[in-house]
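Usage example:
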Amino acid sequence: MIMKSLYSKFAFITIMIMVVSGIISFLLSNAYYQIKLKQQNDEKITNFAYEIADFASKHPLISLEDYFNHIGAIGYQILLLNNDKDEQFFGSAFREKNLPNDIPSQVLEGKVYHGIRIFPHKTFVTGFFANELKNSVGVPFEYKGKKYAMFIRPDIKLMFNEMHILFGWLLIISIVLSVILVLVSTKFLIKPIRKLNDATKEIAEGNFSIKLDIDRSDELGNLAVSFTRMSQKLAKVDALRKELITNISHDIQSPLTNIKGYLNLMENSDKSEREKQQYLEVVQSEVNRLSSMTKQLLLLSTIESKTDLMDVSTVDISGQLKAVIHQYEWSTLDKGIMMSYSLPDATVKGDPALLYSVWENLLTNAIKYNRENGTIEIELTETDGEVVVVIIDSGVGLSLKELERIFDRFYRADASRARSVEGTGLGLSIVKSIVDLHHGKIDIESKEGKGTTFTVFLPKL
Amino acid sequence: MKTILIVDDDLLIRNLVTSLLMKEGFKVIEAENGLAALELLEKEVCELAIVDIMMPVMDGYHLTTEIRKEYDIPIILLTAKSQIEDKEKGFDSGTDDYLIKPFEPKELIFRVNALLRRYGKTGEANIKVGSLYINKKSYEVKIKNKTLMLPLKEFELLTFLATHPNQVFSRGHLIEKIWGLDFDGDERTVDVHIKRLRERFANIADDFVIKTIRGVGYSLEVL
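Running the assembly step on the lines above writes:
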């Protein structure tokens, strides 16, 4: 039989466990009877036999037949033998009269027969219930000067009949009930798994807004909670991904459109050299934009795929800031910007290359969005737990609405300005991801027309 | 005309640098590896060398060390972005500056000009006026623990005034000293730069002021 559902497997296994444990417990209790109880039972019955035989031999006035009929009636099975080999049975009949041939004469000669004790071991048969002549106790006695042998065993059927029925019903009812209960409870146990399975299919179809009405505090309940959380997260990732693709395709399309357009214009031979030169510059700057955008996207995806820093070493923040300042000195001075800085030595543990790109992005932003002859101020301070870098520019500033979205990928404040200032809208998302990766924090304060202040807090770890 | 040596095995880079520098009025000589560069230097006098790091025969570090032994000229190392960590090695071999590829044409010109300006000025005294400290070689201004990097003309104007504190200079004199005789703008340029300098130092320094002397000109006064 092929069981496909967890339900049938679970039910089948549970019932099999019940059956197997029933068999094992029967075998064990049987073994216990064979080893221990059989001995005691034999002794007990031997005592009865002596009592009965004693009474018979001491009361010659009572008819032997009457007496044994009486004993048989109260629940014993008896065979009475004498030297003349007269066999008399009392009580209910033995199922098998299989006494070995030499036993009667031995008992008549005065030996005691312990048939119950020596009754052979059988794995699946409890000797206790075997209604056989062999399974009896034989004792000798004398009655009116004549030797007799008496074989006796308790009439189990008579004595325990009701109990038999009682136990039988108990067993049957408990088996039937437990099978039913197993089937029902398994159904309930499996139900949330079925629900989870349905939910998984929903998610595979792309429907992330699933609701699981599984309210349990056990492992399955936990699983359901994690599952719901996972689907919510997936929904968010999915939404982000869609937005990202829209953004990317837009941001790749627009420079490509420009490149194509200006290349077409250049094909026109009636344009002057000067015009062609201008078109070339446009094409060049669009190519640069595409190239830096793909580079930054790559950087962003590598940062975001990391959960922890890989190349951690001690980073000399003031050294890095000095290097970045040196690198962009030409473009600040070109724009007439004064840069002022105080950079006492400070170090943090982190990824040098990533942190370098934080300073690079923040400084180039401060330069790009600054006014002619503006200022940029860079301050580095160190406290017990963290290193704080403040970059203040005298640039165009940001409105409250722009501030909210400033770390979003591809977001660029003021769309009209975005045309004239080169950039991809990825810089600050990169900065944010890197700072997050270093368990740091970044604050922005800005006033439109006055300038923006970026404050980066990096824990020293 | 100043002569600049460019050493790079990449013909395209050599052409690019050459055309950029020629446009700025420099004479450029080219070498495609370190050995060729050393041979060229024996024949011609150069004011500055631009050296690529990755080259066959003799690499940029080695060449820099060799140039340092024989000649007293500033050197700029060209390096790829991925080698930025190696810049310590560059400074160890004696380079004065480095330029990361790909570079902006303006950056190249800026660095060449800056190096030519500051080279050979070791003898010049640094200036200290009040809390103001001017380093004429590195073109840096220090006030207390702050370092300022001023646009070139503003720096030169401030330096000139600070060299002669409490002395009054006419606008014409300042233009001649700082912008040169062939400057064709008007005297308002000086006013604009003075205004900017005042703005920049307004919140930073309180122990000197640039005063306007009505009808005459400007003077830096120490308080």
